[in-house]
Amino acid sequence: MVGAFAVAGQDRIRSLTTPQPSYVRPTAEKRFKRYVKDTVGPIAWIGLVSGAAFSTAFNSPEEWGKSGEGFGRRVASNFGRNVVRNTVMYGLDEAFKLDSGFYPSTKRDVGSRVGNAFISVVTARKANGKRTVGIPRIVGTYTADVVANQFWYPARFDWKDGMKRGGISLAANAAFNLVREFIFKK
């Protein structure tokens, strides 16, 4: 019985990691435009501001307070993290010739779409469309959170808090991928 589940799991992973026939690597210009859009575009700002509003409502970090000034610090912090994350990710994507962009599943069943949303957080695509370990996204996410905790968060935070927040950021990215997979379809 366990063997059947293992084979089914391997089949699911194989279906998620095989190249998608419709994948075409974006041009250098399109990759750069995506970097700019993901860093300072309108959707990025919606995420930055809504994240700051959420953090202000829960007063996290509490040293910044629930005031307008605290909200502004959180927006600036989120913007800084976003710039670091996307710059590291873009640079590593270009250096390794990878594509860390999210692409909705070409399959229409719920399981494939959920699997695609989750696996896209930790994978990138090679030029042929095959998935590989997404070093750029993982490193960019953790770097951004460690840098924020080391340099502009209150003194009680350190790199370990940044590592914890990096994991939370990857999980939040998976949740956003689910939204893109099921609600904001291309």
Report on the structure:
- It is a single chain.
- The protein has 186 residues and is mostly helical.
- The chain has one domain (31-182).
- It contains 7 helices and 2 strands; from the N terminus they run αααααββαα.
- The chain has helices at 2-17, 28-40, 42-57, 68-96, 110-119, 135-151, 159-182; strands at 123-125, 131-133.
- A two-stranded antiparallel ribbon has the order 1-2.
- α2 packs parallel to α3 (42-57).
- The radius of gyration is 18 Å and the shape is globular.
* Total count of helical runs of at least 4 residues: 7
Unreliable segments of 5+ consecutive residues: none
Query: SSE order in H/E notation?
Result: HHHHHEEHH
- What portion of residues is helical? 55-70%
Number of domains: 1
Global shape: globular
Instruction: Bin the strand percentage.
Output: under 5%
Order of strands in the sheet with most strands = 1-2
Distance between the termini: 39 Å
Q: What is the typical, i.e. mean, pLDDT?
A: 90
Q: How many beta-strand runs?
A: 2
* Major sheet details: 2 strands, antiparallel
The Cα radius of gyration reads 18 Å
Structural class: mainly alpha
Write the layout of secondary structure elements.
Blueprint: H1 2-17, H2 28-40, H3 42-57, H4 68-96, H5 110-119, E1 123-125, E2 131-133, H6 135-151, H7 159-182
Antiparallel strand pairs: 1-2
Helix pairs in contact: 2-3, 2-4, 3-4, 4-6, 5-7, 6-7
